[in-house]
Amino acid sequence: MFRKIIMILLISILLLSVSSMAQLKGKLEIFSWWTAGGEAEGLQALIDIFHKKYPNVEIINATVAGGAGANAKAVLKTRMLGGDPPDTFQVHAGHELIDTWVKTGFMEPITFLYKQEGWAKVMPKGILDIVSYKGDYWSVPVNIHRANVLWYNKKIFEENNLTPPKTFEDFFKVADALKSKGITPFALGTKDGWEAAHVFETVLIGKLGAEGYKGLWDGKTKWSDPRVTDALETFKKMLTYVNSDHSARTWDEACALIVDGSAAMTIMGDWAVGYFYAKGFNDFGWVLAPGNAGIFDALSDSFGLPKGAKNRDNVIAFLKVLGSKEGQEAFNLKKGSIPARTDVDKSKFPPYQRSCMEDWLKHKIVPSVMHGAAASEGWVTEFKDVISLFVVRPDVKTTQKALVNVAIKNGVKQ
Ligand code: GAL
């Protein structure tokens, strides 16, 4: 008898939860800039899981193309300030989330979800810290991306008997050898205005080391430091090895040059590996960007709950998918990043991501500036603009002065 009652109880709980899932209806607008190869597939994997669980919710996949949110961030700002927030949106954990949206009062805390789902127990402290403010959690991190990777076309390196470079010295030797064979050494796209600054960020790390680079964002390292001069000189030289049509190419169109074998190397975050997977390209190799040994330049994509979201229940259901093991595995397998959760099945991941998971545990972690983790959005934008200008007019002295001024303007004494 007792058994029977328990059975009936269990079945009704099950039926209840199934029907409450199916009961979610209406819409869910997901705002992001994930349109390129790897990005779009990663997002779709999340949407597929959500759709299976909540078939009656209509998903509006609101993307604004442009890597690193080059165009999406402005659209988002207009909508948020105009009182028309998307239900949920992609935002980098760290300064971009906290300074731009949390401190200004645009978000709802989601600490209750962290408690319900036990996320604080399965995510690393370094990531939890950058989605926290004043004792609350404000977004769900879906991944950890690494920004400081040099990708190369294996066939080109093998055919030319070259070893992938680890130092700047090696980089220039390899680049010269490639150039003499008529191969574009270094693929770059500068169309969206952030890609050069992304590469320069890794040059800064390579020249200043983890502590020196971190200090640039809190005033411990001065922008007038001779190592910054060295970084600019080095970057200027690197720019002499890039494809001549860089201003017409986006980050993924630069990666396409590695895929089709018309360029040998590029420096890009590991969304590049997501792009390679999406193109079915396996003949790539990777090393860390020159001088970056033992340093993990990190960023994390996350999603939160804006105040006034039109479909709050649906957002909460979606955030649960984002934080789940199933969601994190499916998404990151396509995206090239590693899950923010540490309890995923590592054996499911390809070699690059497995090695990245190991590095995450043993390397020094530094926050990426170009991807919202190291400094507030205003500073990032000005930093990016100064470096964009440098690509066109590579004047080291003027540029360094401009970088000093930008730091001062953003409240860091020089
Ligand atoms: C980064 C983002 C990545 C990837 C990349 C290129 O800012 O964190 O997920 O999408 O931009 O668009």
What's the short version?
The chain has helices at 2-23, 39-53, 72-81, 95-102, 111-117, 119-122, 125-129, 154-159, 168-180, 195-215, 226-238, 251-259, 271-278, 312-323, 325-335, 351-362, 377-392, 396-409, and strands spanning 26-32, 57-63, 88-92, 107-108, 132-133, 136-137, 140-141, 145-146, 149-153, 184-186, 263-268, 284-288, 295-299, 301-303, 305-306, 364-367. It has 414 residues and is α/β, with parallel strands linked by helices.
Per CATH, the class of the largest domain reads Alpha Beta
For the record, the count of structural domains works out to 2
The mean pLDDT is 96
Give the cofactors and ligands: beta-D-galactopyranose
Q: Residue share in helices?
A: 40-55%
Architecture of the largest domain in CATH?
3-Layer(aba) Sandwich
Task: Provide the gyration radius in Å.
Answer: 22 Å
Count the beta strands: 16
Please give the largest β-sheet.
5 strands, mixed
Alpha plus pi helix count = 18
Strand order of the largest sheet: 2-1-3-14-7
Q: What name does CATH use for the topology of the largest domain?
A: D-Maltodextrin-Binding Protein, domain 2
Straight-line N-to-C gap: 78 Å
Organism: Dictyoglomus turgidum (strain DSM 6724 / Z-1310)
Pfam family, one: SBP_bac_1
Main location: periplasm
GO molecular function, one term: transmembrane transporter activity
Structure description:
The protein has helices spanning 2-23, 39-53, 72-81, 95-102, 111-117, 119-122, 125-129, 154-159, 168-180, 195-215, 226-238, 251-259, 271-278, 312-323, 325-335, 351-362, 377-392, 396-409, and strands spanning 26-32, 57-63, 88-92, 107-108, 132-133, 136-137, 140-141, 145-146, 149-153, 184-186, 263-268, 284-288, 295-299, 301-303, 305-306, 364-367. It has 414 residues and is an alpha/beta fold. It has 2 domains: 26-144 and 300-357, Periplasmic binding protein-like II (D-Maltodextrin-Binding Protein, domain 2, 3-Layer(aba) Sandwich), CATH 3.40.190; 146-298 and 365-409, 3-Layer(aba) Sandwich (D-Maltodextrin-Binding Protein, domain 2). The longest helix has 22 residues, at 2-23. The structure holds beta-D-galactopyranose. Residues 33-34, 39, 67-69, 92, 145, 251, 269, 271, 299, 301, 371 line the site of beta-D-galactopyranose. Beta-D-galactopyranose binds at residues 33-34, 39, 67-69, 92, 145, 251, 269, 271, 299, 301, 371. Pfam families: SBP_bac_1.
